[in-house]
Amino acid sequence: MAFILNRVFKGFYRDSVFLMRLSRDLGGIDGIYEAALMMASPSNKQVLKDAGLLSDQSATAESGDLILAINARDAITAQDAADTIEPQITTQTRASVKNTVWQPKTIRTAAKRVPEANLALISVPGSFAAAEARKALNNGLHVMMFSDNVSIEDEINLKTQAYEHGLLMMGPDCGTAIINGVPLAFANKVSRGGVGIIGASGTGIQEVTTLISNNGSGISHAIGVGGRDLRDEVGGISTLMAIDQLDNDVETQQIVLISKPPGAKVLPKVMERVGQSPKPFTICFIGASNLDLPANATAARTLKDAAQATLGKTEIIKFTCKHKKIPDGRTRIRGLYSGGTLAAETQLILLDAGLNVASNAAIPGAKKLSNEINTHKIIDLGDDQYTQGRPHPMIDPEIRREPLEAAIADTDVGLILIDVVIGYGAHPNPAGQLADMLSSMRGKNNPTIIASVTGTEEDPQVLSNQIQTLRSAGIDVAASNADAAVAGLKLLGMNN
Question: Cα–Cα–Cα angle for 108, 109, 113, nearest 5°?
Answer without folding.
Answer: 120
